[in-house]
Structure formats: structure tokens, C-alpha cells
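Lab notebook, bench 4. Continuing the backlog of folding jobs that were queued last week. Each job is logged with the same field layout so the records can be merged later without manual cleanup. Today's entry covers Beta-defensin, a 71-residue chain. Filled in by technician R.K.

JOB TYPE: sequence-to-structure
TARGET: Beta-defensin
LENGTH: 71
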Amino acid sequence: MRNLLLVLVVLVLLSYVPPVRSGPNAFIRQMFSTCWRLKGNCKKKCSKDEVFHVLCDNMSLCCVVLIYLPG
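JOB STATUS: finished
OUTPUT FIELD FOLLOWS
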């Protein structure tokens, strides 16, 4: 009987706790959002010092600084 009461209390308390946002942390997200041999970044829009080179997997632009592009 005491175990049942303890389980019920724990379940009630867990129902009030907000869920934690799951997913990769910032470092892992940054590693997977890189492109062009880890020299570029997948973005919606490239900055002034970057050039669009290829498309990323999620249909965003791979923005690469000019010094890292081939010849």
C-alpha cells in the first residue's frame, strides 16, 4: 500500500514538470550545419564576405568565404 502511494505521488509530480527540450546541443548542431569540407555554414542567406557555393541537405545555402573556394 505504501509503494502504491509513493508511485501515485511520483506520477502526480511528474505531470507538473514541464518537458525538457530534447535534441542535440549547440556544438553538435554546428558540426552538422557545416558544409564544403567543414569550411562553410548552411544558412538561409549569406553575409557580405561569403559566397553561395552549393545547396545543403535541408535546401539552405552553403555560404563559404572566398579564400576557401577552389581556384
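OBSERVATION: The chain has a mean pLDDT of 80.
SIGNED: R.K.
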